[in-house]
Structures are given as structure tokens and as C-alpha cells.
Amino acid sequence: MVRPKIERRICGSAAYSCFKPNGVALGQLAKVTITREELEALRLADVMGLSQQQAADEMGVSRQTFGNAVKQARGKVANALVHGHALVFSDKE
């Protein structure tokens, strides 16, 4: 039996629905989706500068879960920047 997912505390959402390279229509770009959890992990770690433990406590998850979320988010952002993909922000978990 699968363990139920712990509810994460997320304090906001993205200001826009996506970010994309300038001058290229969204329909012509590959899309990389960032979840609300991943965006919150980036905000806490990279914008607010919290340690992984502080950020995990803020989100109400374990340090390992937070570390996994921030690692996935950073990988997605780097992939989009390097390859010119659009970053699309998901409203769903």
C-alpha cells in the first residue's frame, strides 16, 4: 500500500503562468513544467536563502523530501535555460 503524501505548506504561487524565451511563440517551444512544490522549494532555498532544514520545516516536510524537490526544480530550470524551453508553472501538485 502506498503511503499518503504529506500536505506541503506553500505560501504563494508564480506571478505568471510561464516564462519563455523572448520572440518565440509559446506553441513553438518545448515546455518544462514546474510544480507548486518545486517552485516553493526554489523560493525558500534560493530567494530566501534558508538552509535545507529550515526550508523543510517551513514547508512541513522532511529535509530529504525538500532536498529532492529543490534538486528536481533546479534541474528543470537549468534544462529550460540551456535548451531554450518554456517554463510552465502548474497549479496542481
From TrEMBL:
Entry keyword set: Transcription, Transcription regulation
Record bears the keyword Chaperone: no
Protein name as it appears in the record: UPF0251 protein HGP28_08495
PANTHER family in alphabetical order: PTHR37478, UPF0251 PROTEIN TK0562
Alphabetical list of InterPro entries matching this protein: Fimbrial_Adhesin_Reg (IPR053721), RNA_pol_sigma_r3/r4-like (IPR013324), UPF0251 (IPR002852)
Pfam families xrefs: DUF134
Family, similarity comment: Belongs to the UPF0251 family.
